Amino acid sequence: MRRLAVRPALARSLDRALLAILCAGLALVGVEAALLPWGGAGRIVLVLYPIVCLTYLGAGIVAWYRRPGNRLGAVILFGGFAMWLSGLQDTDIPVLVAVGSVGATLILAVLVHLLHAFPSGRLPGPVSVTTVSIAYVTSLVLQAPKYLFNPDAGVPALFLADDPTALAVGAMLQSLVGAGVMVATAVVLIGRLRRAGPAGRRVLAPLFAYGSGAALFIPVSTLVLTPLLGLTDVERTALQLVVLGCVPLAFAFGMLRGGFARTGEVEELGTWLGASDGSRPALTRALARALGDPSLALSFWVARQRIFVDDHGVPIVRDSSPERGLVPVELEGRTVGAIHYDSQLIADPELVRTAGQVIAIAVDRERLTAELRESQRALQQSRERLVDAADRERRRIAQDLHDGLQVQLVLLALEAQQLANAAGTDTAIGERATQLRQRIDDAAANLRQLVAAVMPAGLIEHGLGAAVEDLADRMPIPTTLELSIDEIPASSALESTAYFVTAEALTNAVKHARASSASVRLTSDDGWLMIEVSDDGMGGANPGRGSGLRGMTDRVDVLGGHLRIASEPGQGTRIEVALPCA
At the top level of CATH, which class does the domain 9-261 belong to? Predict the structure, then answer.
């Protein structure tokens, strides 16, 4: 049985949003269709309006769904809204007729917008931004004289005065500005065609030609073709609707299946590469947004170990499920990374491969950083293993001394005492046996101190908390203790480091700082073990002098922790240590 693909949360959210847009669009088209006067003569026009609106709606939804990071789908949907507004002119409701008259030529501005925004969905520069802005002003603002000063427009709600001069000036101004917009658009499109490669021209040339022709067909069909061919208003409007209805199909097809299906990613990633480091997002996030796959991940190739790692230097295990695709990123014939993506969202791996080629240099730079982090991580782990091995050896030695030699000394002390107490033993021999037992007791005590210095039995048998409590109890100066570490996942290396840091700090307080009191505080905070040892001694501790503080710093650094010493002369010493529990 084929396993269903689980779409990411962001993709599911987009699905719901597009579904809501689709339902709203269908509702608007249905309402408009219900309000159209179907009993009139121009039924073919009335049929075409909902069909054209549905074409824009469907093409826009599909384009947005297939390329979530591309704005062209939203622009196509806006074109459908413009067509819907234009269709309101044919209803019998005065308010809706007025609204439709205001947006009657809005679709022409949307066509200009589509031409400039294809294929990335973004206006590429200030010239395009200015041209498209003027196109919208021409369609909305310069359209106003046609219903404000024309009594025959059939919009009494918006009619101001019968002023033929204002009407003529407005119409002429709209034609001139509109012509200027199309000339500027032609210049921009020709420049883009010249810069495009052969494959790009094969897609761009017919698409730009059709889009420009569709935008020009509206005024040309009204001013030239109608009187030349003797077309009726119904025939002219039907031709215009057919031409406009093919526009969303052409642009959606060019964006999704044409040779420029990858141009959006190239342009978006090119913009990312051209931005300053402070203003551009992380490489993985930029790539995910460009390809429209929020689950996308980027890995980096470490050649000496032949593994892929993430940006933190952690090795990556490839997900072998059929829903996940992998495309290597190559630079000058060598692999520098890989892109892991959702093959359900991106059906063509060539899209991902092309995007990877655009960012290959940036991936190589990130790869060097990730490789350095991986090396640091490997070095850190090696140092941790050395410390852990040393601690295990210390534990073994301490255990052998405790369970072996110390037991033997205890048995010898008992035997000496038995010899001293035995009946018939000479007095001198008894005294010497008693002295021997005392010396054995002293040796056993010294051995216990040595075992405690190597690895305290409390730490081995009962853990960090009990060992620190015993340490504080054995201090020759008053020492307060605060413990709150019950739930930390403590490893043996962590416990050993925490204990010896605490022991070294307290030893320094007694031997060097000549403190009269000390305090120890061990707590856990968000995955970190926090240690604070304070005393009221003479202060002036310098980490650069003395093997004790240097050894303490080294042990903390091996575990990836932090150490801070505050020791002003005459103000005591406070040592703060943070050790990662994981």
Answer: mainly alpha
